[in-house]
Amino acid sequence: MVKLVPNKPQYNISSQYNKYCMIEDRQYLIAAQVERWDLFARLTPTAFLLTSLVLILFDIIDFETAFYVGLVGFATTAVVWWWWAIITIKHLVITLNRASKNLNEVSREIVRATQEIEALKNGS
Amino acid sequence: MDLKRYALIKAATNVISGFSMVTLIILGVAYMSFDNAFVFQDVKIEIVNNPIKKHDDINFTMIGSKKHECASTQVYGIAYSDDGHMHRLDTFTKQYTRNTRPGEPIPNQWSMAVPDDMIAGGEYRVSMTGDFICNYLIFQKEKSQTYDNILLVVDPR
Where are the domains of chain A? Predict the structure, then answer.
């Protein structure tokens, strides 16, 4: 089967890049969760529909039971997905801000380095 | 499994899942609508021969429309007297029309014998209750509907 989530990268935990490793781990986790949500969304409705129909057909449950089980499942999924989305968005915004901040720092460093080179050129 | 086949399977499961979701939502909404609907709408029940003379039966008339296909399984009345006594009316001397068609107001009428324990006569408030089995699409449900406060006046027996 084709895996859309890349293999989990291996890090030296004791290295100075611990913080970045944790960020990478989190991103890996989010990608895996997105794939799981995708699989859940593709399989659950059909599985629930077919299971309910079979159980109703064999008189094991009635329509009311199937309806309330579906309603509870739908509500639970909605609430869990909502909180997952909020937490993930928060994480992505933090990551984006951090990346933006780092880029700004790099940009400032380049400007400073250019100025220093210019000063060196002018001094010589 | 190669990428093309994987993409095809993924697309197919997406379509099937979409159709399943649409089916579930439609069936869910239809079931809620069916579950919450009353058996009769715009319903009116009256006793047309008040006061009931000594050897007469109680003649009921009714008009109302049904939203779904519903067949009655049991129909009875409870007459409440002012002093708190209850009298069960369940002896039909003239039957009502059963399984009236849904969708339009249908007049109906029936007669019931005066219970033996109503010898004192007087004023009563009758509650008519019907138990039904209703069908809609693939759903079936037992329902009950009561029409309260029908005035009954009985002469002493």
Answer: 21-123
